[in-house]
Design brief:
Distance between the termini of chain A: 45 Å
Shape of chain A: globular
Radius of gyration of chain A: 19 Å
Helix content of chain A: 25-40%
CATH topology of the largest domain in chain B: Rossmann fold
CATH superfamily of the largest domain in chain B: Thiamin diphosphate (ThDP)-binding fold, Pyr/PP domains
Largest interface: A-B, 46 and 46 residues
Order of helices and strands of chain A: EHEHEHEHHEHEHEEEEHEEHEHEHH
Largest sheet of chain B: 7 strands, parallel
CATH topology of the largest domain in chain A: Rossmann fold
Shape of chain B: globular
Strand content of chain B: 5-15%
Strand order of the largest sheet of chain B: 1-8-9-5-4-2-3
CATH architecture of the largest domain in chain B: 3-Layer(aba) Sandwich
CATH architecture of the largest domain in chain A: 3-Layer(aba) Sandwich
CATH class of the largest domain in chain A: Alpha Beta
Distance between the termini of chain B: 79 Å
Largest sheet of chain A: 7 strands, mixed
Strand order of the largest sheet of chain A: 3-2-4-5-7-6-12
Radius of gyration of chain B: 21 Å
Structural class of chain A: alpha/beta
Oligomer: heterodimer
Strand content of chain A: 15-25%
Number of domains of chain A: 2
CATH class of the largest domain in chain B: Alpha Beta
Chain lengths: 323, 354
Amino acid sequence: MVSMNNVEAVRSALDQALKSDKSVVVLGEDVGVNGGVFRATDGLQKKYGKDRVIDTPLSEEGIVGMAIGLAVTGVKPVAEIQFSGFLPAAFDQIFSHAARIRSRSRGRFTCPMVIRAPAGGGIRALELHCEMPEALFAHIPGIKVVCPSTPYDTKGLLLAAIKDPDPVIFLEPMRIYRAVKQDVPEKEYTIPLGKANVIKEGTDITIITWGSMVKYTLDAVAGLDDVDAEVIDLRTIYPFDTEAIIKSVGKTGRAVVVHEAPKTSGFGAEIVATINEKALDSLDAPVLRVTGYDTALPFARLEMQFIPSKERIIKAINEVMDY
Amino acid sequence: MVKKVIGKFEVEYLQVLDEEGNADEALMPKLTGRQIKELYENMILVRTFDDKAFSMQRQGRIGSYLQVKGQEAAQVGSVYALQDKDWLFPMYRSSGALLARKQPMHLLYLYWGGDERGLKSPENVNNFPIAIPVGTQIPHAVGAAWASNLLGKKEVSLVFFGEGATSKADFHTAMNFAGVYQVPCILVCENNQWAISVPRKIQTHSETIAQKGIAYGVKGIQVDGNDIFAVYKAVKEAVDDARAGKGPALIECMTYRIGDHSTSDDAKKYRGEKEVEEWAKKDPVLRLERYMKKKKLLDEAYKKKVLENAKETVEKEVKKYEEYPAPDREDIFKYTFAEMPQQLKEQFEEFKNG
C-alpha cells in the first residue's frame, strides 16, 4: 500500500497498464516530456519511451480521431484531453464514430479506448476549462462514462476502463486531484464499471452523488446531528448502478441527488426518473436535486455560487426530511 | 534586415493516358494485359452496379444512394494497389472502391437498402464501415496507419474523401498527424469539382488540393483521376513508399461527378449541361476502352461479353439482396456494447415483450 492522492492514482494506473499490456499507449497534449499539466503522466515517457507515451499536435479532434484508428487496429489508446472544456472539439468523433463502430460494423471492428479528461470546477481555472459534461456523454449509446472520487477508486476504475472492450470517457475531478489521500495498493486491481459505492452508510436519507461532490457531500452530512444520511458514490455514470440506488432508497425512503452540472437534463434527472419507476412506493418525500444552474459556468470569482455548496446540500436534505 | 525566399515548392501533375486513349509508354505503370483487363472489368462492374442502384432507388427498392459514375478510375485504380491486409477507409461515394475490394455486392445493396449488416467487412479484408459525416474518416485512417508503425506491422491505410472534405478540420488535423508521425497512409482526394452545389473554387483558394500536402510535410501529387493508369501509378508508388517506411502521401484525383450529388439532389439547379458534356468526353471507361482497342486487348465480342457478365452478376446480386433474410429485430441491442449493461438489458426485455 502506498499513500497517494487522486492524480497520483491516475499515474499509478497508467504505469501499471503500460507495464502489463504492451498494446497500451498514452497520448495527448503535453503528456510526454512535460508529464501532463497536472503531472498525471509524469515520468511515464522516460520509463516507457516516446512511442508509448506520446506528445501529440494540439488538436482534440485529432487526438480522439487518431485514437479511434489506433483502437480499431489493435493498439489500446488512453487519450488525454487536457481539460474537459476542450472535449466538445472531439465530440463529433466520439458521437459519430467511437460510439458506434461496433454497431456499424456488426461487431467486426471495435473501439476499446479511454479518453481521460480533468473535469469540474472549483479550482479558479480559466473559463471553458471546468465543465462537468457527464450527462452529454452518458446520452450517447455506446459510450461508458466514469467519474471517480477517491484515489483507490480512481486507480481501480481507470484500470477497468483500460481493460474494457468499449470506449470509456473518464472524467477526473480536478478540484480533488490533490484534496484527499488514501492507501492504494501498488499492484494491479480493478473496480468493475457500473458498480456504485456506499461510501457512508445511513438510515434516514440517501444522497446520490459522484466526482468532487462526494467529498463535499460527506463534509455536509458530517455536520448533521439529527439526520443519519447514506451517501452513494455512483462512480460510473453510464452504466449506472440502479440496484444500489433502489436498495438504499428502499431502506431510507428519501433521496437527494447532488451534481455539479446544470440541472435541466442533468444526470440527476435520470436518477430521479429511475427512482420513480422502480421505488415510488418506498418514497416518503419527493426526490430533490442540488445541482449547478442552467447557465454558463461562471468565471473564477463567482464559480462557487454555481457549484453546490455545503449549505445548499444541507438545505435540500432538511427539506426532504421535513416533508 | 533580410528578406529572401526560404522555400520554393512544386506540384506535380500526372497523366499517362490521354482522352483519345494514347498512353505515354515512358510513364506507363507495370501492368500485364490480364491486369489491364481486370481493371476494365472491375470498372464495368462498378458502373453496372451503380446504374442499377440508381434505378432501384427510383423504383423504391433501395433508399437514398450516392452515385459513383465518372469516378470509377479513381476508386478502382486506387484500391488495385492495396493488399488484403491493408486498411480501406471509405466514404459514402466509395461503393466502387468497396466493390473492387471484395465487399460482396449484395451487401452494398443491403446497406443502401437501410441495413447495418451491409457494412460488415468480409473477414479476409479490412474494409472499415463507410463514413457518412464528411471527412471524419481521415483521422481514423491516419490512426490505423500509425498503429501499423507502432505495432511493427507492414499494413498501409488508404482513405477516400472529396474536395469538400478538405475544408474540414478533420482533413487538416489528419494531414498534420500523418506528417508529424510519418505514417503509412495514402490520402486520396477525389476532387469531383462539386460538393453538392458548391463548386471547387469556393472550397479553397488554393490552385490545387495536392499542394496542401506541402504545408504538412506530406508528399502531394495531382493526377488525372479519369486516367486509371495515372491513378494506379501514383497510388502504387505511394503505397510502396509507405510500406517501406517513407511516410504518407496525398493524391488529388481530378475527376467529375457525372450524376447528381445523391438521389435526392438535382444538379441542373446549379450547374450547366455543357460542363457535364465536356467532362463526359473524359470518361474513364471510354478512355480505357480506346487504349485497349489500340493495344488489341479489347474487341466488340470481348466488350459485349464483359457487359453481359457484369449485368448477370448484378442481377444475381440484386436477387441475393432482395431475398436476403430480414434482419432480426433483436440485433438492435446486440452491438452497442460487448456486453449489455443493466439499463440496456432492461430495455431489451421490454422490447422483446413489446
